[in-house]
Design a protein that fits this description.
Elements lengths: L2 E4 L4 E4 L10 E10 L2 H7 L12 E8 L9 E4 L2 E2 L5 H4 L10 E2 L12 E5 L3 E3 L12 H13 L7 E5 L3 H10 L5 E6 L2 H9 L3 E4 L9 E6 L4 H9 L1 E9 L12 H5 L3 E4 L5 H9 L9 E6 L3 H8 L6 E5 L1
Parallel strand pairs: 10-11, 10-13, 11-12, 13-14, 14-15, 16-17
Antiparallel strand pairs: 1-2, 3-4, 3-8, 3-17, 4-5, 5-9, 6-7
Helix pairs in contact: 3-4, 3-8
The structure holds zinc ion (ZN) (2 copies).
One zinc ion (ZN) binds next to helix 3.
Length: 317
């Protein structure tokens, strides 16, 4: 089969990859796959990943132990737990210490013709969701994870720092949970898009105009984002962290202690509410697609992904 392969140093397009087979898992033919910032980190050598990257996808089940799944259009939860530990047994495979993660940790991903996943990871898609929208379900699920970790009081305001792919999805989700949602970013075009969805937007230049609120979500993926974010939480409020790229940052935690701020880290999330939100058109993602490339043009795709005004780059596989 063809696909992209990362050997720990270089990413290459290959046509000699072996079609995957894992006993007890479903074989999935990939239709579309999305590029995520985690993929960029992996290609820089983080996580020590080797193999086929990519984890945001939509595909068709070509073979599976349960024959009724064959031919179904699906998306897949990316964490695969051991199934035996206390986390797995309590439904928290996402925290299994022995887990593999699609295209991220010990498991080949979706930038290829085929991948495999256990059946329990798969969600059959309703017809209302278009193929091109489906790769957004995984990052959208991670936006919904915030609502699993923090009870957002409906009479409160939320500020989101970061107008990238994730910040744009989070602001759309938060509209249904908070009285007012404010997105702060530094990309005029992305802020204009958010405004179109009815979200209040502020350019970072005018951030001084903002008042402190109870919930602040940090989704900038930068070190300075954390400092900004702490400044806008009221005492006893919540600072919700979505960026993993700030690892190694030297953080000033004294405002956190002085204002008794709750810091909450959140990562991957539940697929079901993300699928429902997309099917019911409560979240719009199609206008976030910047460009679609065949896998062969992966170099162009990744360099387009780095352009300032790019939001989501999709591979048509
Ligand atoms: Zn991702
Ligand atoms: Zn486990």
């Amino acid at each position: 089969m063809y696909g992209l392969y990362f050997d720990g140093k270089n990413l290459t397009y290959r046509e000699d990859l072996e079609k995957p087979y894992k006993k007890g898992e479903a074989l999935i033919k990939i239709l579309y796959a999305g590029i995520c910032n985690t993929d960029k980190e992996i290609l820089k050598g983080y996580h020590n990943f080797k193999g086929i990257p990519g984890h945001e996808f939509v595909g068709i089940v070509e073979d599976a132990p349960s024959k009724e799944l064959v031919g179904k259009r699906i998306v897949g939860e990316i964490n695969v737990g051991c199934g035996k530990c206390a986390y797995c047994l309590s439904g928290l495979e996402r925290h299994c210490p022995n887990r593999t993660v699609l295209g991220i940790l010990g498991r080949d991903g979706v930038f290829a013709e085929y991948t495999t996943l256990p059946e329990k990871n798969l969600y059959v898609l309703p017809d209302e969701i278009e193929d091109i929208e489906a790769p957004f379900i995984e990052p959208l699920a991670s936006a919904f994870e915030i609502t699993e970790m923090v009870h957002i009081e409906p009479n409160e305001e939320v500020i989101i720092f970061g107008d990238g792919k994730l910040g744009l999805l989070i602001s759309q989700v938060m509209r249904y949970y908070a009285k007012r949602v404010i997105l702060v970013g530094k990309h005029r075009e992305k802020l204009t898009l958010a405004k179109k969805w009815g979200i209040n937007t502020y350019h970072l230049d005018e951030v001084d105009k903002l008042k402190r609120v109870r919930y602040v979500i940090e989704a900038t993926g930068t070190q300075s984002g954390f400092d900004y974010a702490t400044r806008y939480v009221v005492p006893r409020g919540y600072l919700i962290l979505k960026s993993t790229t700030a690892q190694g940052a030297s953080l000033n935690l004294s405002p956190v202690v002085v204002d008794e701020i709750h810091i909450i880290g959140t990562r991957c999330g539940p697929f079901a509410p993300a699928i429902t939100a997309l099917a019911e058109k409560r979240v719009s993602v199609k206008d976030m697609v910047t460009a679609i490339y065949p896998l062969k043009e992966y170099k162009e795709a990744f360099s387009k992904n780095d352009e300032r005004d790019s939001i989501k780059i999709i591979f048509e596989i």
